């Protein structure tokens, strides 16, 4: 539970590379997510090549800071999954698991939205050579934090309705 109440979006990173074991733990956490009809529509691209990370930083007007990340994970979903209508919901849960695991491993991370914006999805797919059987869902930038942020308290009792 600590990661839920500690995690923030980190956009500034040190130059320290991320260990391969930690990158694997991040995708393990993602694949532990629940999914509609247990369809597990996901595939994950772990990006550590600096040229590709730089190119990913240009796929969205909100991704410029990605260029300074040590790594990125691009969650993708299969077009031919069991319940396509819920694929992006499933990917949201998997992406949140990456963010929570990153926090628990001492890493900073930030979710950059790609789907459902077609031009951003296509741009990410082009950078990584993602086949047409997959769709790029998001970019998660990763690195050891070069900034410290406190999570804001978003709890609002007025939004709770007991019936």
Folded structure, characterized:
Helix 2 crosses helix 4. Strands 1, 2, 3, 4 and 5 form a five-stranded antiparallel beta sheet that branches. Helix content is 33%, strand content 18%. It has a single domain, classed as NADH Oxidase, CATH 3.40.109.10. It has 163 residues and is of the alpha+beta class. It starts with a helix and ends in a 20-residue tail after the last strand. It contains five helices and five strands, in the order ααβαβαβαββ. The protein has helices spanning 2-6, 20-31, 50-56, 87-104, 118-128; strands at 42-47, 71-78, 108-113, 134-136, 138-143. The mean pLDDT is 96.
Summed up, the helix count is 5
Total number of distinct structural domains:
1
Nearest-integer average pLDDT: 96
The CATH first-level class comes to: Alpha Beta
Taken from the alpha-carbon principal axes, the silhouette is globular
Q: Could you say what the CATH architecture is?
A: 3-Layer(aba) Sandwich
Strand content: 15-25%
- Main structural class: alpha+beta
- Low-confidence spans: none
Q: Could you give the distance between the termini?
A: 27 Å
Order of helices and strands: HHEHEHEHEE
In the CATH scheme, what's the topology name?
NADH Oxidase
């Amino acid at each position: 539970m600590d990661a839920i109440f500690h995690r923030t979006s980190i956009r500034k990173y040190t130059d320290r590379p991320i260990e391969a074991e930690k990158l694997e733990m991040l995708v393990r956490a993602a694949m532990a997510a629940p999914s509609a009809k247990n369809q597990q529509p996901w595939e994950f691209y772990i990006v550590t090549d600096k040229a590709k990370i730089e190119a990913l930083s240009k796929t969205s007007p909100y991704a410029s800071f990605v260029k300074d990340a040590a790594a990125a994970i691009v969650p993708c979903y299969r077009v031919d999954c069991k319940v396509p209508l819920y694929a992006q919901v499933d990917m949201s849960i998997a992406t949140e698991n990456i963010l929570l695991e990153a926090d628990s491993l001492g890493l900073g991370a930030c979710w950059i939205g790609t789907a459902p914006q077609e031009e951003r999805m296509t741009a990410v797919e082009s950078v990584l050579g993602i086949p047409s059987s997959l769709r790029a869902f998001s970019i998660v930038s990763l690195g050891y934090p070069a900034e410290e942020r406190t999570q804001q308290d978003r709890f609002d009792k007025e939004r709770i309705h007991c019936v």
